[in-house]
C-alpha cells in the first residue's frame, strides 16, 4: 500500500444493534486518525428470483468489491445466528474470490464485532467464524487486549476476540458504557495498526 485509505466498517444489522456497534467503532477509527467508510449488505431472500435495489432506501450504502479493495483495514460485523455469522454477510464474503486471487487484502488489519440476544448466545463462536475467511485472505486479525480495563469490568458484551453487545430478547437493551468503550478502543487500535502496517 502506498497510502493509507479508509477503514471499511462492513456490517449486517437486522434490529439495529450491530449498526450501533459499527457507528461506535467508526468513531474509534476516526479518533485513531483515519476515515471510516460505513457499508452494509442487502438481506438474502429464500426466493431466488427476488432482487434488492442497488441502493438501500435508508441507512448506509451497500458494499462493493471496490470498497473492499480500496480499504486499508476492515471491521466486520454481524448478528449472531446460531453461533455463526448471518447469511447476508457470508454471501458477500463468498463473492470475494477476486480479492483472494490477487492478494489485495494480504497484510491489512481486520477486526470483528457482533451482537446477540442473550449473554451466552454464541458471541465468541460468531466472532471466530468471522475471522476464518479473513485469515484465508491473509489479513492480520486485531482483537482487544486486556490493557483495556473495560474488559475486566464488563458484565454485558465485549471480549478479547472483538467488540460485542447483549441486546436482550426484545432487542431493546442499549449499548452499555463498557461495550461502547470497547468499540471505541477496537476502532482506534484498528486505525493505529493500519497506519503502522502501511509504513512498513
Q: Could you explain the architecture of this structure?
A:
The protein is built from seven helices and six strands, in the order E-H-E-H-E-H-H-E-H-E-H-E-H. By secondary structure, it is an alpha/beta fold. It has one domain: Rossmann fold. Strands 1, 2, 3, 4, 5 and 6 form a six-stranded parallel beta sheet that branches. Helix 1 (17-31) links the parallel strand 1 and strand 2 (36-40). Helix 1 (17-31) crosses helix 7. The longest helix has 22 residues, at 177-198. The model has no long low-confidence stretch (mean pLDDT 93).
How would you summarize this macromolecular structure in one to three sentences?
The chain has helices at 17-31, 65-70, 87-93, 97-102, 123-136, 150-153, 177-198; strands at residues 7-11, 36-40, 73-79, 109-116, 140-141, 163-166. By secondary structure, the chain is an alpha/beta fold.
Amino acid at each position: 500500500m502506498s497510502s493509507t485509505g479508509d477503514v471499511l466498517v462492513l456490517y449486517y444489522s437486522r434490529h439495529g444493534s450491530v449498526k450501533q456497534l459499527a457507528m461506535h467503532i467508526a468513531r474509534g477509527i476516526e479518533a485513531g486518525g483515519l476515515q471510516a467508510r460505513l457499508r452494509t449488505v442487502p438481506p438474502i431472500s429464500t426466493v431466488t428470483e427476488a432482487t434488492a435495489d442497488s441502493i438501500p432506501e435508508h441507512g448506509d450504502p451497500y458494499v462493493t468489491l471496490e470498497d473492499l479493495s480500496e480499504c486499508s483495514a476492515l471491521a466486520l460485523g454481524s448478528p449472531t445466528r446460531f453461533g455463526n455469522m448471518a447469511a447476508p454477510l457470508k454471501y458477500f464474503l463468498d463473492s470475494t474470490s477476486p480479492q483472494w486471487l490477487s492478494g489485495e487484502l494480504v497484510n491489512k488489519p481486520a477486526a470483528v464485532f457482533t451482537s446477540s440476544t442473550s449473554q451466552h448466545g454464541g458471541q465468541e463462536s460468531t466472532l471466530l467464524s468471522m475471522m476464518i475467511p479473513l485469515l484465508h485472505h491473509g489479513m492480520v486479525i486485531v482483537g482487544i487486549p486486556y490493557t483495556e480495563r473495560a474488559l475486566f469490568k464488563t458484565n454485558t458484551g465485549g471480549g478479547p476476540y472483538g467488540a460485542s453487545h447483549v441486546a436482550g430478547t426484545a432487542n431493546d437493551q442499549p449499548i452499555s458504557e463498557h461495550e461502547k468503550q470497547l468499540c471505541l478502543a477496537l476502532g482506534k487500535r484498528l486505525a493505529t495498526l493500519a497506519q503502522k502496517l502501511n509504513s512498513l
